[in-house]
Amino acid sequence: MNISSLPEQSPTGRFTRGLSWVLRLIAAAAFLAAGIAKLMGVPMMVGVFDQIGVGQWFRLVTGVIEVVGALTLLLPITVAISGALLAAMMLVAAGIHLFVIGGSPVPAIVLMLITATVAWLNRQHFIRLD
Predict the structure, then answer these.
(1) What are the tens digits of pLDDT across the range 14-33?
(2) Are 80 and 125 in contact (CB under 8 A)?
(3) Where are the alpha helices (H) located in the chain, listed in sequence order?
(4) Domain ranges within the chain, ordered by starting residue
(5) How far out from the chain centre does Cα 89 lie?
(6) Are 20 and 122 in contact (CB under 8 A)?
(7) How far is C-alpha 93 from the geometric centre of its chain's CA atoms?
(8) Global model pTM greater than 0.70
């Protein structure tokens, strides 16, 4: 049996794709729920953004980014960049919790790790510029 007759998809590849989809679905659900809550003006979200002190426009922009990010996590062509951008956004969110408004940064850190992992698992989808 020569190597060219081996199947192209190894169990590790299937596992990686499955893990990526599970993480993408978890993150998409979390970002979609949070983004919709921000856009609908849920009182808790309004209060959080009042504490941040930048203005409610920032809540709306954040909500749009979260909803768009949730949807683009599910598209193969945008999954890597979406994961990376959402991970960066959660890094900022963790910093805001730590240094501005207080509260636990753990949810933001968990989402950052999930979306960074998604970006890493799908790194082959980044556009090559060379």
Answers:
(1) 888 999 999 999 999 999 99
(2) yes
(3) 11-40, 43-52, 56-72, 79-96, 106-121
(4) 16-123
(5) 8
(6) yes
(7) 12
(8) yes
